[in-house]
Design a protein that fits this description.
With 292 residues, this protein is α/β, with parallel strands linked by helices. The chain has 2 domains: 7-65, Uncharacterised protein PF01937, DUF89, domain 1 (Helicase, Ruva Protein, domain 3, Orthogonal Bundle); 72-291, Rossmann fold. 51% of the residues lie in helices and 12% in strands. Strands 1-7-6-5-2-3-4 form a 7-stranded mixed beta sheet, sandwiched between helices. β5, α12 (250-256) and β6 form a beta-alpha-beta unit. α2 runs antiparallel to α3 (50-65), α4 (72-84) packs across α9 and α5 (86-94) packs antiparallel against α6. The longest helix has 18 residues, at 26-43. The radius of gyration is 18 Å and the shape is globular.
């Protein structure tokens, strides 16, 4: 997705959020904002991918803050909150006539665990507060029948994960994918370095994500979404061999929508207007959408 005008104030809002997470030093917060504004004025180009620009800005900000993981505490709490909801999710799956569909909806609800932007969560406990309502709402855009048909014939699937906490539900989703098609080889890709509230290998290992996937790779670098220019060879090969690529969250949409990878299925909440317009969908809905 190309960067939109409204992405600029949104990105600056998130920069301020992470600066305040990292330090109470007003001078350092000011230095962060001044640098971010200057950098955005230089980088902003409507022909550039929004995730590419966001990556450069956040990387610079982390350097000024001298903080490699400003969201560390939020990530831990998000995982704890999501883990506390596992019995509820398991109960819904156990009583469902279509466990895979139910697990997919729950995994999408986990995508609310995003911080510092318009439409995001104020705190990790929001997941507990909104879970029942969002589950009752179901899918606002539903390509699940197409997805299930493709999955029945697929041999290789790549899952690009998103936020901490959210991956707790992704683990359940992967288990159900295996139940649906025991021959399915699943490769999961997490972030190569801490960035925003996204899951890294350490975060995946902490919840034993390896129990439900055949391979676990990383993006190989600091990036919002995926930086395909620095993607390790094993992850690149997995994507090229995949019968279907499953992407969680908006940043992965921003990245993959700039590529020719197909088919790609996006599981996300349309939390911002720019993403909703790009996907030709309403805002604030749960989505399973396939691009074939």
């Amino acid at each position: 997705m190309k960067i939109q005008q409204e992405c600029v104030p949104c990105l600056l809002k998130r920069i301020l959020f992470e600066a305040e997470l990292s330090t109470s030093d007003k001078k350092r917060q000011t230095a962060v904002l001044r640098t971010a504004c200057k950098l955005l004025s230089e980088l902003y180009d409507p022909s550039e991918c929004s995730a590419t620009i966001a990556t450069q800005v956040h990387k610079t900000v982390y350097g000024i803050l001298k903080d490699s993981d400003p969201y560390a505490s939020l990530k831990q709490t998000s995982t704890a909150v999501a883990s506390s909801l596992v019995p509820k999710v398991e109960g819904l799956i156990a009583s469902s006539s279509d466990p895979l569909r139910t697990s997919a909806i729950c995994a999408i609800i986990g995508n609310v665990l995003d911080f510092g932007i318009e439409g995001s969560s104020a705190h990790p406990q929001v997941l507990e507060e909104v879970f029942d309502r969002l589950y009752a709402e179901g899918l606002g855009y539903d390509d699940y029948p197409k997805l299930k048909q493709r999955l029945s014939q697929a041999r290789r699937l790549v899952l690009c994960t998103d936020n901490c906490g959210e991956i707790v539900f992704d683990k359940i989703l992967c288990r159900e994918l295996k139940q649906c098609n025991p021959r399915l080889h699943i490769t999961a890709i997490v972030k190569g370095e801490p960035v925003l509230s996204d899951a890294t290998r350490n975060d995946a290992d902490a919840i034993q994500f390896h129990e439900v996937v055949d391979e676990l790779f990383t993006t190989g670098c600091f990036c919002v979404g995926v930086d395909f220019t620095h993607l390790p060879a094993e992850a690149r090969t997995a994507l090229s061999q995949a019968d279907i690529i499953m992407c969680k969250g908006m940043a992965n949409y921003e990245s993959f929508s700039e590529t020719t990878y197909k088919p790609v299925v996006y599981l996300l909440r349309t939390k911002c207007g720019a993403i909703a317009r790009a996907m030709k969908l309403p805002r604030n809905i749960s989505v399973i959408k396939i691009y074939e």
